[in-house]
Each structure stands twice: as structure tokens, then as C-alpha cells.
Amino acid sequence: MIGTLAVENYRSLRRLVVALGPLNVVTGANGSGKSSLYRALRLLADSARNGVVAALAREGGLESAMWAGPKKLKGNLGTAGDSPRGIRLGFAAEDFGYAVDLGPPPPTRSMFALDPEIKVEAVWAGPVLRRSAVLAERGGGAIRIQDEWEERRVSPFDSMLSEASSPEVLAIRERVRSWRFYDHLRTDVAAPARAAWVGTRTVVLGHDGGDVAAALQTIREIGDHEAMDRAVERAFPGSRVEIVPAGGRLELTLVQKGLLRPLGVAELSDGTLRYLMWVAALLTPRPPELLVLNEPETSLHPDLVGALAELIVGAAKKSQVIVVTHDRALVAALDEARVLELVKDDGATGVEGQGLLDEPAWHWPKR
What we know:
Layout: E1 4-10, E2 13-19, E3 23-28, H1 34-48, H2 52-58, H3 62-65, E4 87-92, E5 96-103, E6 117-125, E7 134-139, E8 142-145, E9 148-153, H4 160-163, H5 167-177, E10 180-182, E11 197-198, H6 212-222, H7 225-235, E12 240-246, E13 249-255, E14 263-264, H8 270-282, E15 290-294, H9 305-315, E16 320-324, H10 328-333, E17 338-345, E18 348-351
Helix pairs in contact: 1-2, 1-5, 6-8, 7-8, 8-9
């Protein structure tokens, strides 16, 4: 489980170091930095897939994604000191930690001038980076595994997590690659979820929710089908999900009390369909190490918020969960969660009530 998350110089996150628990809620007013924190987590996950440089380039390059305010901060947001120019991302658990430092490339005539370079990476043992605890590090184009530098060079756009093969690096890579994000479960009339889906076992709901019928049927056959039935009954009393085979494809239907026939997926409201997709995502038979949900309350009727909260609390017993939301009812319903209320001061995002002395210990690897 991630105990500490740290971000520096990314959009409004000039300097943010927060402690996390099993269930976490990130909330705050519009423009307070919730989306920036969510995207920072996505960038960390991209590092394990060797995609962080390309992801930043898609945001307009390093200059576009970097903090645009003053170097020094004041008040409860503290100061970031004289950190090098670039974006720094990292996390730590009780057993391992990882950090990456991305900076501008040297002057070049390349047509890929928007690509940042990976300047430094480090993997260490324990929750806090110490020189004696470093297990693997990357400086410039060379990788050192404990006390031996590897001979081969590493391109400035390739992450150490994808290039090195030590047990420690592999452990971090597989851990981060298991992280799962949901932020765009489509329910419009052309949404993939409103079409019949090929009938293959689906232990993980796709990011767009298109395979919801297959995912729910997989839960029915090899997962916690009783929890699925309870979740549907909790939200829609007297209802149940039925998956109908159709020529090798599967179609989602909902049997509701008082109706003479099941409702097909094309007839379901946006909120009903999205809730059923959350059932499939949160009752997955293959829970991830980290599950991140971005505004899961979108298009749900207020009466469904309690049922959604129960699903999230249940998921947090098997995975660490981070929920990004502005819905106060959902925050209140998740009363077991660690709540991070984001606020802005002079354009910089901080956590309400958290000063420098309240932050968990954190050190960045040096360039």
C-alpha cells in the first residue's frame, strides 16, 4: 500500500507531500487541483509502462505541464526551496519507494523537442529515501543496481523501470502496472457498453466500460455473485441483472419489479448503466493493488450515492482506493476514508490544515 505520495512542479502542485491510507478521498472546490493530482498518479503509472515522456508530450510538453507560479511559496504551503527545473513524482510504501525527475532536454535540432528527459530515478528500501537504502538508481544515461553500474546506456526517454531487470526494479514495475484507473465510463447512445459484447471471460472491466456485460457475467460465474446481487438490489429494489447470450455475444439486461419484460441495455438510463459498470469495476475478481476513481458520482441520482459508497468501501478491503470527487454527499458517505481537502493559495495546491510539520517524511533523489 502506498503510504506517501509526492509531487513537485506539476501544474498547480508546486509541492505536495501527502500520507495515504487504505481508502482516500481527494476533494475540494473546482480548480483546487483535484484533476492535477489524478493526472500525477496517471503519470506515475505511465512510468512503469515507459510512457511518462510521451504522456507529458501529449500535454503540450514539459513547459506546458510545469508549475507556472513563483519559485518560493508562503503560508501553510511552505516552500519548495531551490529544486531543479522540471517535474518530480514519487511514492513510497513500507517496503519500497520510487521517484522520477523529469527535466528539459538540452538544446537540440530534433523535431521531438517537446519530449522531456528522465534525469534521475531511484528505487529504495523502506518508506523514506536514504543513501544507504538505495537499491537501484539512474543518473543520466546509466543505471546502477546497488553498487554496480550497468555497462549499457539508457535513452533519456526510457524509464529505468522498463529497462532494468533487478528483482527490486521488477517488483516496483509490476506493482505500479497493476494500478487501475477509471475516469471515463461512457453511457451515451453510442457508448460501447450499449452494444452486445463478445462473450469472453472478463476479470477486469475495460476503461471505457464497453465489456460490462462480460465483466458482470464473469463475476456471476467466478466472483462474488452474491455481492453483485446485493449491490443491484440495494440500488434498484426488486431488480436483478441478467446477461443474455446472442450469437456468441453477451447483452446486459435489467429485470425490474412490475415490468413484463427485462430492459435492454439501450433502454437503461445513463445513471443506471453507469452504476452497473461501477458494480462490475468494484467487484472485480482480480483486485488491483491501487484503484483510482475519478468523479464516480457523475450522472448518478443522489439516491444511488449510498449504494456506490458501500461498493467503494468493500473494494477498499482488497485494494487501496483513491476517490477524486467534489460530491459532498459521497464524501460524507465514505466516512471511513482519509479525506484530503485541496485548497489553493497564490495558485498553488495544498491540503487544508496541513503544514510542513504535518507532512510525512520525504526526500528527492539528487540530480
